[in-house]
Amino acid sequence: MPLEPAQVPARRAVSPLDHRVEAATGHDIDTLWTYRDRGVLDEPHAHLVDLHRELAQAQTGIVFYLKLLNRLSSGEFEVDAALVTRIARTTDQLEQATGTRAAAAQAVVDALEPIEAASTHDAKVLSTDDQAALLAIAGGAKLHEHLLTGRMSVTAASGSRIPYAKLQRLEGTGLVVRDTDHPVHAGQPVALTEAGRAALFAARRTPTTQRPKAAAPTGAWPSTPTPRR
Question: Where are the annotated segments for Disordered (predicted)?
Answer without folding.
Answer: 205-229
